[in-house]
Amino acid sequence: MTRDALRRKLQQTRAQLCEASRKQAAEAVAARVKQRLDLNHGGIAAIFKSFAAELDTTPTINALWQQGITTVLPVLHPFSKGHLLFLRYNPHTTMIKNRYGIAEPALDCQNIVPLAQIDWLFMPLVGFDRQGNRLGMGGGYYDRTLARWRDGLLTQLSPIGLAYDQQEVESIPVESWDVPIPEVITPTKHWRF
């Protein structure tokens, strides 16, 4: 199956989950994230605001805030096409919709947090396999973000995918630019690759 066909199939599977299942999954993932992190040591977590049928990250964001973890969200870089910036996020952050219709903090240079200061990078997945290969939406934003980590330049960063259990597949077709990730958290399992 091609990457595009697999992406469509997994997006359809994700979209068919009922509201109760989605809510339960979001709460279970938040509990697993709390178990995964040493929430007493502070730190900075980059996480996404859910879009469409993605796993709802609201419970996870609230758990991070309750533990005093600084939270940042990805923002489409205004000058470097295909790249992300990360901006501080709290309940009072002014949000706008980017060109994909995804909510992100309004650009304010004072709120930018360099990737080198981020401890955990929670990212959305369309699909993943047991080798740590991930399938995203196809824009390559997270692969570009993870390139320096892959090259050993961001040793403090822990990339972690967040997904529904139904997004695990036997094998993801891999391209040369793909960056496998070491962990995925689903409602029922914490995968380490």
Automatic annotation (TrEMBL):
<keyword id="KW-0479">Metal-binding</keyword>
<dbReference type="GO" id="GO:0046872">
    <property type="term" value="F:metal ion binding"/>
</dbReference>
<dbReference type="GO" id="GO:0030272">
    <property type="term" value="F:5-formyltetrahydrofolate cyclo-ligase activity"/>
</dbReference>
<keyword id="KW-0460">Magnesium</keyword>
<feature type="binding site">
    <location>
        <begin position="3"/>
        <end position="7"/>
    </location>
    <ligand>
        <name>ATP</name>
    </ligand>
</feature>
<dbReference type="Pfam" id="PF01812">
    <property type="entry name" value="5-FTHF_cyc-lig"/>
</dbReference>
<comment type="similarity">
    <text>Belongs to the 5-formyltetrahydrofolate cyclo-ligase family.</text>
</comment>
<dbReference type="InterPro" id="IPR002698">
    <property type="entry name" value="FTHF_cligase"/>
</dbReference>
<protein>
    <recommendedName>
        <fullName>5-formyltetrahydrofolate cyclo-ligase</fullName>
        <ecNumber>6.3.3.2</ecNumber>
    </recommendedName>
</protein>
<dbReference type="InterPro" id="IPR024185">
    <property type="entry name" value="FTHF_cligase-like_sf"/>
</dbReference>
<keyword id="KW-0547">Nucleotide-binding</keyword>
<dbReference type="GO" id="GO:0009396">
    <property type="term" value="P:folic acid-containing compound biosynthetic process"/>
</dbReference>
<dbReference type="GO" id="GO:0005524">
    <property type="term" value="F:ATP binding"/>
</dbReference>
<keyword id="KW-0436">Ligase</keyword>
<dbReference type="GO" id="GO:0035999">
    <property type="term" value="P:tetrahydrofolate interconversion"/>
</dbReference>
<dbReference type="InterPro" id="IPR037171">
    <property type="entry name" value="NagB/RpiA_transferase-like"/>
</dbReference>
<keyword id="KW-0067">ATP-binding</keyword>
<feature type="binding site">
    <location>
        <begin position="134"/>
        <end position="142"/>
    </location>
    <ligand>
        <name>ATP</name>
    </ligand>
</feature>
<feature type="binding site">
    <location>
        <position position="54"/>
    </location>
    <ligand>
        <name>substrate</name>
    </ligand>
</feature>
